[in-house]
Design goal:
Blueprint (H helix, E strand, L loop, with lengths): L1 H5 L30 H5 L15 E9 L2 E8 L10 E5 L8 H6 L4 E3 L6 E3 L9 E4 L5 H4 L8 E5 L3 H26 L1
Length: 185
């Protein structure tokens, strides 16, 4: 009614109201600190861990394509992460999570029988290599310091299909990219 009075409209005119959500005005938006993804994904404490790791590990999501993300867990080498090979582990399935391999096979920690704590795997692959579990495409954007390390793709079960398929694609992309670089320089 007040709106109609102020705008000199007939009092029987309905007020138009939109319930569509509007973006928050920038001056009222919360300040979001910009933290590099590598730092944001770093795991500081892992609940239930019964030892202090002598390596860094990170987990989060890497962009596979616009709107599609892959979960990853990156475990740096305990030896020399700057020069040790980088290993991408692909578990079978299809659809089987590589977290199973991380936590029960070749990762740096295994669950204790109590189901709530983890113990050190003294035979972990990250004793001599840095391990990536489940993601690749966006990895070198976040971790460019590993781009010159040797790169190994391996896996188990249906990974016997994923590994050669991915490796073939990587080789093709590298060859195409090398050709493009040769043409540009």
């Amino acid at each position: 009614m007040i709106y109609n009075f102020v705008n000199k409209l007939d009092y029987s005119t309905n007020l138009t109201l939109s319930l569509t959500r509007q973006p928050l005005l920038p001056m009222y938006a919360p300040v979001v600190p910009t933290v590099p993804r590598m730092k944001a994904d770093k795991i500081g404490e892992l609940p239930g861990l019964t030892f202090k790791p002598n390596f860094h590990h990170h987990a989060g999501y890497l962009r596979a394509s616009p709107g599609n993300y892959l979960h990853y867990w990156f475990v740096e080498s305990q030896n020399n992460p700057q020069t040790d090979p980088l290993v991408l582990w692909l578990t079978g399935g299809p659809g089987c999570s590589s977290l199973g391999a991380l936590l029960t096979e070749n990762g740096p920690f295994h669950p204790n029988p109590d189901g709530s704590t983890l113990f050190e795997n003294v035979y972990s692959w990250n004793k001599t290599a840095s391990d990536i579990y489940l993601a690749l495409k966006d990895f070198f954007t976040v971790y460019p310091q590993f781009s010159t390390n040797d790169f190994i793709v391996t896996g188990e079960s249906y990974g016997g299909v994923y590994v050669p398929t991915l490796t073939r694609l990587l080789i093709q992309k590298i060859q195409v990219w090398s050709t493009i670089l040769d043409l540009l320089f």
